[in-house]
Write a structure and sequence with these properties.
This protein is largely without helices or strands. Helices cover 8% and strands 10% of the residues. Belongs to the universal ribosomal protein uL3 family.
Amino acid sequence: GVVKRWNAGRTPTSHGGGPVHRHAGSMGSSTDPSRIFPGKIGAGHMGVEQVTVQNLDVVKVDPELNMIVVRGAIPGPKGGIVYLKNSVKKFVRKGPATPTISTNPQKRSARG
């Protein structure tokens, strides 16, 4: 429904709200323009999108067990098809930040 797919609000649960608490509610005006504009949120198919996860580390390849060990999360169900390819964007690991000391004598870090 629209509540899960589009994060739509629910109708009131009391004061005669009826059994339609997770429905879409009003869709638009009546006589003019006499239609619903394109892009209006509604219920429909949700999920099964192709997802690309970048820069995961291949830890080990075991041809005997026909297994590739990857560090990181892989989306999809167990037993699903996974395509591996070289990364286009290179990930640069940054070291720890170096502390900076101000040369301004008014700042506490410059007083020593």
